[in-house]
Amino acid sequence: MTQARAVRMTAFGGPEALTIETIDLPAPAAGEVQLRQTAIGFNFIDVYQRKGTYPLPLPTGLGHEAAGVVEAVGEGVTQVRPGDRAAYMNAGLGAYADRRNVPADKLVVLPDAVSDEAAAALIFKGMTAQYLVKKTHAVAKGDLVLVHAAAGGVGQILTAWCKALGAEVVATAGGADKCAIARKAGADIAIDYSEADWPKRLLEATGGRKARVVYDSVGRDTFLHSLDLCAPFGLVVLYGAASGPVPPIEPELLNKKGCLFLTRPSVFPHNADPATFRANAEDLFAAIASGAVKVDIGARVPFETIADAHRAAEERRTTGAIVIVP
User: Keyword set for this entry (predicted)?
Assistant: First the structure.
């Protein structure tokens, strides 16, 4: 039996709802791996779950992704060995911990070119970008792509990857500084969506052209504009709701806006099969190796002050990825 520190929640609420407990961690069971976690990823879904926007059975842990070193393996585990560096996502809630037992088939061994912090910062966000640019819509040379919240963790990866695939990228972000970050990530055009006339300014910047695909993680504040800024027969991809749930619409509205397609995908179904998950991860690692995807760690937060990561994200005080360091 090993001791571990882990975050537990007994009620939904603000960042103060996160408490750190010391727990007894048993030896890994058959098919499991015990991981000493060196870097934990943060994703905005953690905020939704903490607040109860996406309700969870209580009490619960929190967190979906982390990287670290394999310390022990259970019976039947052959794909990883003690001493291997590995990362995971979608191994069940509970990544907010310094040690954890996870199913071996949820792990991917890290190549030398990818550090533990980079893996924790990218494994969820990068895999989100991977399915968005390869599965939801196969971004191709010449596509005009609109990326909302392009200064955020996923937004920067998505912008850079679309550019590497030959697309023209129009980005939105909140404020001049974040627009500069979006341009640094590769955006051809960056529009400040905190200004009231931003949709008009965006169309002026593109010469009236609308996007073949719109990637919208903002939700309520941008969704109806996303429909207006999508080209006929184009695709609006709603993959988050940072500003709140989107208003309900009648399907007929999609017809009136230009025979649009609308989808609400998620990273987990795209990586539910272990073999598919590893193949998608290899695609991500190859994009990192080629320079198409770069890690941008905006903040490193000690495990003891994990609530600060939530406050900073909710107040939109961060750019890039947040990494929690045990």
Answer: Metal-binding, NADP, Oxidoreductase, Zinc
